[in-house]
Structure prediction request, 332 residues.
Amino acid sequence: MRRFLGLVIALCVWAVAALPSEAKTTLRITLQLPIKNHLGQNLLLFKKIVEERTKGEIEIQIFDSAQLYKDKQVPQAVGSGAIEMGVASLTRYVGDVPAVDIFYQPFMFNSEKLVRAATAKDSPVRKPLDEAILGTGARVLWWQAFGQAIMLSKGAPVKTPADMKNKKVRVFGKTLGKFVEAVGGKPVLMSGSRQYLAYQRGTVDIGMTGVSAVKSRKLWDVMDTITATNHADIEFIVVINEKVWQSLSDAHKKIIEEAAAIAEKDVRDKMAAIEADAYKAAKEHGMKVYTPTEAEIAEWRKGAAPVLEQYKKDAGALGAKVLAAALKLQKM
Prediction:
């Protein structure tokens, strides 16, 4: 009997020791862009690090090309817990946090130095925005650089506001829509995944996007000219449902935070090369690239002036705070 009890105890101890220290956790991420886009590749880097460092205790599943949710649906889907994680254009949070559109104020952050200063994790511009987004039920893990906004057209470049008059222009945010209205155009808000068909069918006359999207979405098939206005800094954010985050162990949280920091630095450091490569590919596929003159940029700035005034009215105290921080950065 003693031998039998000893065998049972030994088997129980072995069975407990054989169990994984934590149950496997699956985190799904929704992405509107193709996996081959640099944002998709950035998620693959994050996935690799997390799965390796947790020894498979966390599995990351990526659903690209808006398979599950369109860009505009991501804030609600992640905030409600319908999906664990998601990638969304920062401006998709403007309904809950109007101040986020500081990044879409025309020509506010039109240099890499300004962009890096404003998007740093502890920046007085970014940090208050991350804290405000937490109120939607989603925690910001990292920001993904998407480069500067450009214009797309057929037949001729969009040199000045006069070229926008009465034209339908694809935009991806409220403030950019106001920018288009201020310079005489008609904004059409649509997700990135709908761009190709919109340009192909003539639903819109002028496009607005990042040059990397021209390559990943093969927009050279439906547009033939890029105007490098660089009028807004396009940022995406990777968010995780706050309840899901709080359910993770401290060890897993630390690994995810470390992986997020690595992924953020990687995509930010690669952005200049990514844009250069996209411009090269666009030219190789027959697109023309036009760079506005200083005089033409001055016309754009003058036309866009009402947009900043409207932002001051709409963005409240938080908007005033981040705007003051942004203007201070410009003077440094």
The mean pLDDT is 92.
